[in-house]
């Protein structure tokens, strides 16, 4: 079986199966996004989480524990209020931790070039920790990840270590991060739509490929017009939240600008 | 120029340049690791941070700010004590945040297969957020990243929102994470050394390739003997800190086990 046929078979198999997550359905905030990808022949999503605030109880003294020993005290994909967290914290017996986790999306791609296009759009939309995995059988996967998290220990062996005022302050930050995450998803959706439309046009009119060579959809447009229409992609200049900044402690020999 | 010659040129150029980081040198805990990679013809490192505890002052109300507006109150690659953080916090005027950031390493790879091998070893060693980037000119980069962070808001507009006792508790956790990060680096170093030795033997005796087909160095060995010698790679079974667990909220259609 050739690679394209094999990819089609994987896709059909994957999309026909039941959603195996505990929730059993795609999060509201990424439904459209997941649809956009699954409608295209070159992609399908294998897992997604739109972003969430979670409170978990588990490892004593900050040690990570096996997932099965963790207790999920609270999970929400919507902004969260102090009273909900305070109520959930009453059930904590170990070291409770509050986390904000931004969008995580796994997309299987037909070929490396498809993954490169999606990867470039993800990076430009602010999902800077995204990366490609290529398996030994050629399965190509893009994991979309952001740098935009929060992980805050709240209790020690069941004893709350912070005040209610602090939890209120923390939730304001977590809710803002959730809002920012939503904006990034929207930006990602719009940028991807444009990139895919452009790709379709290029495929329909192959001659355009030559003209378009220096402006391909997977090029990071560093000098993009900041006044561009809504849903614009981020550039290096307006989003400095990059793990590779020249912060103290990061030893940089040289980082190719356009690798 | 063929691709291998071009890669050699990039490598020579990169390694001959001065270290552009503020620190100006490679972190002690990754010196050996960086050397191991740079000695191999198929790799060179472009940036590295062994892992650090940082205290930064910046965005009001938890908003991320441009890097140039952030003030670094404290940066350390060693375990940290409460008094150092309390002293640094006195200088905070905005919203101070304490972070633990694990190893970040960027490695340029000669070809995709070299990146796949390194990626697989990184994942097996616990660096589960690692990913490959392939640029339009074919530059192939592996970013090594862990899921193992901490990000804790401490003050609001210069006002400390937590107690000294909490900071003490928090630093114990941050220091433990730093210790765990060190162990992962060691494990990564040992696993990589073995994978590279194996690859060298395979290259010297190409016939072995056939025998070795089902046990290649970039295969995730899910059923590895847990009693194996020190520096063993992690398996799915003994490290559940995977972003793709079936936690509530992650919608999973199917996640190919062996993609």
TrEMBL record, chains A, B:
Listed transmembrane segments: none
Taxonomic placement: Eukaryota, Metazoa, Chordata, Craniata, Vertebrata
Region (Disordered) location: 210-259
Catalytic activity: 4-demethyl-7-[(3S)-3-amino-3-carboxypropyl]wyosine(37) in tRNA(Phe) + S-adenosyl-L-methionine = 7-[(3S)-3-amino-3-carboxypropyl]wyosine(37) in tRNA(Phe) + S-adenosyl-L-homocysteine + H(+)
Extent of Acidic residues compositional bias: 238-248
Compositionally biased region (Basic and acidic residues): 225-237
One Pfam match: TYW3
Signal peptide annotation: none
Domain of life: Eukaryota
Keyword annotations: Methyltransferase, S-adenosyl-L-methionine, Transferase, tRNA processing
GO biological process, one term: tRNA processing
A Gene Ontology molecular function term of the record: methyltransferase activity
PANTHER family, A to Z: TRNA WYBUTOSINE-SYNTHESIZING PROTEIN 3
Ribosomal protein found in the keyword field: no
Listed EC numbers: 2.1.1.282
Record family assignment: Belongs to the TYW3 family.
Record organism: Ursus maritimus
Function: Probable S-adenosyl-L-methionine-dependent methyltransferase that acts as a component of the wybutosine biosynthesis pathway. Wybutosine is a hyper modified guanosine with a tricyclic base found at the 3'-position adjacent to the anticodon of eukaryotic phenylalanine tRNA.
Keyword Methyltransferase: yes
Protein name: tRNA wybutosine-synthesizing protein 3 homolog
Pathway annotation: tRNA modification; wybutosine-tRNA(Phe) biosynthesis
Gene encoding the protein: TYW3
tRNA wybutosine-synthesizing protein domain mapped to chain residues: 10-193
């Amino acid at each position: 079986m050739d690679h394209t046929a094999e990819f089609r078979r994987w896709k059909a198999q994957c999309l026909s199966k039941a959603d195996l997550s505990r929730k059993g359905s795609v999060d509201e905030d990424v439904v459209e996004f997941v649809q956009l990808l699954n409608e295209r022949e070159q992609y399908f999503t294998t897992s997604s989480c739109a972003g969430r605030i979670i409170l978990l109880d588990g490892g004593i003294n900050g040690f990570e524990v096996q997932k099965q020993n963790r207790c999920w005290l609270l999970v929400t994909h919507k902004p969260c209020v102090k009273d909900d967290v305070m109520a959930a914290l009453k059930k904590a017996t170990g070291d409770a931790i509050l986390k904000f986790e931004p969008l995580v999306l796994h997309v299987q791609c037909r070929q490396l070039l498809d993954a490169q296009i999606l990867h470039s759009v993800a990076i430009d939309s602010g999902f800077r920790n995204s990366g490609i995995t290529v398996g030994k059988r050629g399965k190509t996967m893009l994991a979309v990840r952001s740098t935009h998290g929060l992980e805050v220990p709240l209790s020690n062996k069941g004893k709350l270590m912070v005040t209610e005022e602090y939890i209120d302050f923390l939730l304001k930050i977590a809710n803002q991060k959730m809002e920012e995450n939503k904006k990034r998803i929207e930006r990602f959706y719009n940028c991807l739509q444009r990139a895919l439309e452009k790709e379709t046009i290029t495929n329909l009119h192959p001659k355009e490929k030559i003209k378009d060579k220096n402006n391909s959809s997977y090029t990071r447009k560093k000098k993009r017009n900041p006044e561009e229409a809504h849903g614009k992609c981020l550039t290096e200049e307006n989003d400095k939240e990059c793990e590779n900044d020249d912060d103290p402690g990061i030893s940089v020999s040289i980082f190719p600008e356009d690798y």
